[in-house]
UniProtKB/TrEMBL annotation:
Phylogenetic classification of the source organism: Bacteria, Bacillati, Bacillota, Bacilli, Bacillales
Protein name in the entry: DUF3048 domain-containing protein
Species for this entry: Lederbergia wuyishanensis
Family annotation (SUPFAM superfamilies): YerB-like
Residues in DUF3048 domain copies: 55-196, 224-333
Xref: Gene3D superfamilies: YerB-like
Region named Disordered: 26-46
Superkingdom field: Bacteria
InterPro entries: DUF3048_C, DUF3048_N, YerB-like_sf
Segments passing through the bilayer: none
Length: 347
């Protein structure tokens, strides 16, 4: 009987020991250091780039050594929507004959598959292209522009020589609103003529991400620029607070890409006032791109009255005697005879 009691006591003791061990196990686990997941802000780092594109300020991992290409693009209503404008780094809008405007689109950071409709050259388009050391593309020319191009002051490809070869006619539009050139043909034409496609233009000045927060001035999220009495060439820009960019409109119609309807979006709008003079009975003009003068600069829904100067051939905004900084991205420059044709408002 006594032996049996001892067995019972030993069994109870064993059970108690097992229970104690099982209770201690979690205590041991709780003593191990807690692994803390790093906060998202600790993990995310803003990407830095070794280089940036000279005309947009956008970062890139590859040195941007491509030469700029400047193309005269048609803005007649029969030429809209155009092709390639959304990929231009800088676009100038200037008056040609009458109150018709044309564009000079400068490409460096992007190379559109196709560009156009391409239109004829004027001397001031050539002058702007020279500032960027660009390869100049046009289809046709005024008599004075023809002389300037023949003098060899700028490398150029012209549809008057290469119509049907480098330049192709679109069947869905009528001449002179149907001439296009691919970027592949621009490169082919450059190679055939021994034109270099390296040597990028000088870099503009751009805001850092942190500096963008400090932009201030007059609120202006709707801008209208009236070229003469014909509303077909009235340009409007509307600011979108969500994207931080401007959409562009001609005669109330949004400026988009012909093939896919992608909108042309603008980060900087510079409007410069300068002398315009009609030269002949055809209405051809002289536009003074050297004098400097008054200007408006629109960025992030804000307008500032500044000045412009010609710095080594490039139209450059100046504020308080220093080059004004640009928002990284696309820039449009509207050239007007007077800032009186410009109106803006804040909604």
């Amino acid at each position: 009987m006594k032996h049996k009691s001892i067995q019972i006591i030993l069994l109870i003791t064993f059970i108690l020991l097992l229970t104690a061990c099982s209770k201690k196990a979690p205590e041991k686990e709780s003593q191990e250091p807690e692994v803390k997941e790093p906060e998202q802000s600790e993990q995310a780092h803003e990407k830095t780039y070794d280089f940036h594109f000279p005309l947009t300020g956008i970062g890139t991992d590859v040195e941007p050594n491509r030469r700029a290409v400047a193309v005269t693009i048609n803005n007649h209503p029969a030429a809209r929507p155009q092709t390639g404008l959304s990929q231009a780094d800088i676009v100038y809008e200037l008056l040609a004959e009458g109150n018709v405007t044309r564009f000079l689109a400068v490409f460096q950071s992007e190379t559109p598959d196709n560009i156009g409709p391409v239109r004829s050259a004027r001397e001031y388009f050539i002058e702007l292209a020279q500032g960027y050391k660009a390869l100049f593309i046009a289809h046709g020319y005024s008599p004075e522009a023809e002389k300037t191009l023949a003098s060899g002051v700028i490398d150029h490809l012209n549809g008057m020589k290469y119509d049907g070869t480098l330049f192709k006619r679109s069947s869905d539009r009528k001449a002179p609103h149907n001439s296009y050139i691919t970027f592949a043909n621009i490169e082919k034409g450059a190679e055939d003529n021994g034109f270099s496609m390296t040597n990028p233009p000088a870099s503009m000045d751009f805001y850092t991400e942190k500096e963008l927060e400090g932009i201030n001035g007059n609120g202006a999220d709707q801008i209208k620029i009236v070229y003469g009495n014909n509303s077909q060439f009235t340009a409007e820009y509307k600011y979108d607070t969500q994207s931080g960019r401007y959409s562009r409109f001609s005669d109330g119609e949004q400026t988009v890409e012909y093939k896919n309807g992608a909108p042309v979006l603008v980060d900087n709008l510079l409007v410069i006032e300068t002398e315009h003079k009609v030269l002949d009975s055809s209405g051809r003009r002289f536009i003074n791109l050297k004098s400097g003068g008054k200007a408006y600069l629109f960025q992030k829904g804000i307008m500032n009255e500044i000045e412009w100067r010609n710095s080594d051939g490039i139209i450059t905004p100046y504020e308080d005697g220093n080059p004004a900084k640009l928002v990284p991205g696309k820039t449009w420059v509207n050239v007007v005879p007077s800032l009186d044709v410009v109106s803006y408002e804040q909604n």
